[in-house]
Amino acid sequence: MLKGVTIFTTNTCAYCQMVKKYLNIKGVSYEEVNLDENPHRRSEAMEISGALTVPVTVVTKKDDTREIIVGYNLSKLAPALV
Amino acid sequence: MSDKIDLYGADWCPDCHRSRELLDSLSIEYNYFDIDSSDELKNKMLQISGGKNVIPTIVLTDGQILQEPSNPELLKALNLNPEEYKQDKAEKEIRDLVIVGAGPAALSAAVYTTRERIDTVILEKGVIGGMAAVTDLIDNYPGFEEGISGLDLSDKLEKQAERFGAKVEFNEVTGLKLNPNKTKEISLVDGSKLVARSVLIATGSDYKKVGVPGEAEYVSKGVHYCATCDGAFYRDKNIAVIGGGNSAIQETIFLTRFASHIDLIVRSSVKASDVLVEKINEFVAQGKITIHLTTVPLSFNGDGKMINSISLENTVSHEKKTMPIDGIFVFVGLNPNTKFLQGTNVKLDNRGFVEVDSNLETAIEGVFAAGDVRSGSTMQIASAVGEGATAALKIREYLEK
């Protein structure tokens, strides 16, 4: 079970759109942090992912464990949402 | 109670055919009464339906009466799980066309085939819109006088195809083979299989790697292949762009929104359209971009966590230098997405692109290719959508054979 999903995105990133599209299809609600609109949260995304890229998807499970998916990677994203 | 289901319908009624096909596929026996064949049957149907002229009117063995039910409604009335049925059907069903990829060539083909009511499945492993979707600005696609962003164009292509019933499924193709009965078996990464009468390979291409030390180690940690995705992390930073073609120049111009300075590393000379060259020269004049011609990267260097410098060599003077840099964007050409075709009978050229005849048909009959993935393609979105349309018409001809 999921506690929450947060995605770090930018306006121009096509892979971010795909993650959102996938979550919408699966009926998973999420919080979006748009780094173009919230540039002060860029370092947060970098710390979480260890990389300078978006999308970064943070899936928080019921037991508060977190799964971090860097990029649009269905083979990691799909199982993380179960 | 009766032994069999009674189905009142007519030959001209599509919903009656749909319900009958569903019952046939489940091997459920039923009595079919064509209400056009006698007034007696028509009156009986009216009696059952409470005077309503609605077909199919279906009487189940337990006496339940269904009027014009959807397939899920009929399945539910039969105590069957519509989800299971869907899965089961997908495995058994022979599709008319499977399109591999969902870029401009694929979506253009899908617009044509779905409008012709050709049963079409589109499979995409990455981004809908493909390479076009990750391109900042598309300035040479006809019909958009101000140019259009790659993301917007992809969105429009997808919505247009969806309007006629196309649906993109997120899955990756791992293999393709021809069955003795000429259908094609498509293997998917989740272990499932699809069977189709025809296939369109429209998997496009992906950015090439440079192949220098440090490149693989620092992917997304200073080394990037998508400016629209990762450019925003380089606000007020110094970056290098590798490449001298249209993509490299276009993306360098995009990156000037963020970076304070860009070193453009070009192996020989800039080979881009005049409009782009003029634009980039404006930035060179402003001191925002420095172009290093006849220069190749030797290595990307970092501290184990992030890139911090790049080593270069001038191919004429053989002078070597290392420059501090915050990030590197690579645009040095394209590789075809044809790994899944290795070991199949689809013929590839020496660079891995798919060879086709003048009908865009590959070495396997009924398997077509269009767009960037085709050997000899021009790597233009306008060409890709044209080829997608041509392929769709050739596929229709093939299916009619």
Structural commentary:
The complex is a heterodimer of chains A (82) and B (401). Chain A is of the alpha+beta class. Chain A contains 3 helices and 4 strands, in the order βαβαββα. Chain A has helices at residues 14-25, 42-49, 74-80, and strands at 2-9, 31-34, 56-61, 66-70. Chain A has a 4-stranded mixed sheet with strand order 2-1-3-4, sandwiched between helices. Chain B is of the alpha/beta class and 401 residues long. Chain B folds into 3 domains: 5-89, Glutaredoxin; 94-206 and 335-400, FAD/NAD(P)-binding domain (3-Layer(bba) Sandwich); 223-332, FAD/NAD(P)-binding domain (3-Layer(bba) Sandwich). In chain B, a hairpin with a 5-residue loop joins strand 10 and strand 11. Chain B starts with a strand and ends with a helix. The mean pLDDT of chain B is 92. The interface between A and B is medium-sized, with 26 and 30 residues.
Descriptive key words:
heterodimer, A: 82 residues, alpha+beta, Glutaredoxin, four-stranded mixed β-sheet, 3 helices, B: 401 residues, alpha/beta, FAD/NAD(P)-binding domain, 3 domains, seven-stranded mixed β-sheet, five-stranded parallel β-sheet, 11 helices, 23 strands, 29% helix, 26% strand
